[in-house]
Amino acid sequence: MQEKNKIDQGAQDLFIFVWKKRKPLMIVGAIAFVASIVASLLMTELFRSTAIVFPAATSTVSFSEQRNAKAGAMDFGEEDQAEQLLQILQSSRIRNRIVEKFDLFNYYEIKTDDKNRNFKLQKKYDKHITFERTRYGSIMIDVLDKDPERAAEMANYIVKLIDTVKNEIVKERTVPAFEIISRKYHQLEREKLQLEDTLMKLSVMGVVTKESRANLYTSLSQVKTAADHDYIKQAIEVNAKYGALYDGLAELREFKTDKLTTLEAAYEQAESDANADFTHKFDVEIAVPADKKAKPKRMIVVLVSTLGALAAAILFFLVQAKIAELRELA
To answer: How many structural domains is the chain composed of?
Structure first.
């Protein structure tokens, strides 16, 4: 109760103090009011254009029969994809293209020989271009500019850059991977063709498969002419000499064929990932030129400035009174 009385007494004393200083405070308030009106009128009007995109759940075409059904090309992405998209939008890959496309150094009046030019540009860029993930999982791209047409153009250009930049990032990994798989795949093809060529030469020499080879001896006992006897006998000798080689090469050919079949799916997947340009987002809303300024809110500027000036004046008079009181005690 006693503490409450102290608070009430303090508030009463403050009110009395402010009332005594009402004339200088009114002068300060009036000056601040007029100055803030003038300042707000001198502020550059900025127009806001907004584009909204949803990340895609997948950025590839799968050749696997067991692919995840949730990762279809028609599915919207979730939190992870939204965060990845947000990181890409905030990257220097996007920023540098925007700076070059719209000549932001000159547009923001930053001298290229200024040693702090990149710092100043970053501050301006962050002030005028923002990216935010909404509660629905989409990404909102906001651009503020004194020209509403330019603001809309910048926002829509950023949307286009999403696919361009992400495809570049993806291809930094997929192209080398495809080159490795491609070399291995074509090497296996060449090796298989060489084996088939060697097997063909052995076949021309009379070498036959293991199953056919067993029938040669039966045929030898059943021939009726000397010529046939000599022909089969010669075939038996050739197969005795090259049969094991033929069998080994035939087995190796089957192994290479199986390996090629297994590698074919990986080759097709890698080729698709390396050569195709995918879209990585859904365009929910394109940016359009605003017909009403977004900043400055002149009434808010005037109100905040005036109240701030009054608060500073009251604090100044309180400090001044306290200093005078301390001097009297001294």
So the answer is: 2
